[in-house]
Automatic annotation (TrEMBL):
<protein>
    <submittedName>
        <fullName>Cysteine--tRNA ligase</fullName>
        <ecNumber>6.1.1.16</ecNumber>
    </submittedName>
</protein>
<keyword id="KW-0067">ATP-binding</keyword>
<dbReference type="GO" id="GO:0005524">
    <property type="term" value="F:ATP binding"/>
</dbReference>
<keyword id="KW-0547">Nucleotide-binding</keyword>
<comment type="subunit">
    <text>Monomer.</text>
</comment>
<feature type="domain" description="tRNA synthetases class I catalytic">
    <location>
        <begin position="16"/>
        <end position="71"/>
    </location>
</feature>
<dbReference type="Pfam" id="PF01406">
    <property type="entry name" value="tRNA-synt_1e"/>
</dbReference>
<keyword id="KW-0436">Ligase</keyword>
<dbReference type="InterPro" id="IPR014729">
    <property type="entry name" value="Rossmann-like_a/b/a_fold"/>
</dbReference>
<dbReference type="GO" id="GO:0006423">
    <property type="term" value="P:cysteinyl-tRNA aminoacylation"/>
</dbReference>
<dbReference type="InterPro" id="IPR032678">
    <property type="entry name" value="tRNA-synt_1_cat_dom"/>
</dbReference>
<dbReference type="GO" id="GO:0004817">
    <property type="term" value="F:cysteine-tRNA ligase activity"/>
</dbReference>
<comment type="similarity">
    <text>Belongs to the class-I aminoacyl-tRNA synthetase family.</text>
</comment>
<dbReference type="GO" id="GO:0005737">
    <property type="term" value="C:cytoplasm"/>
</dbReference>
<dbReference type="InterPro" id="IPR024909">
    <property type="entry name" value="Cys-tRNA/MSH_ligase"/>
</dbReference>
């Protein structure tokens, strides 16, 4: 079975051809964890989990990498005593 994907540049469905035959690499930007999970977070997990499982079912070897951003140490917080994650945790507990 061939997988066809939509190419938004050409506005055509095209047969999926990985760079390395039989292998697919996926990098997905994960959630920025600083508050409760919301529908936007879940949509990413579900969408790419579905793609991953489809590729595996079709016989591809898949390397699936996802990051999770440490929101407690964003650059605009500074380095000392200004951790958003810790502040929010203290407010909720």
């Amino acid at each position: 079975m061939q997988l066809k994907i939509y190419n938004s540049l050409t506005a055509e469905k095209e047969i999926f051809k990985p760079i390395l035959e039989g292998n697919v690499g996926m990098y997905v930007c994960g959630p920025t964890v600083y508050s409760n999970v919301h529908l936007g977070n879940v949509r990413t997990f579900l969408s790419f989990d579905f793609i991953y499982r489809t590729l595996m079912h079709l016989g591809y070897k898949v390397r699936y990498v996802r990051n999770i951003t440490d929101a407690g140490h964003l650059t605009d917080d500074g380095d000392v005593n200004n951790d958003r994650f810790v502040k929010q945790t203290r407010l909720e507990n």
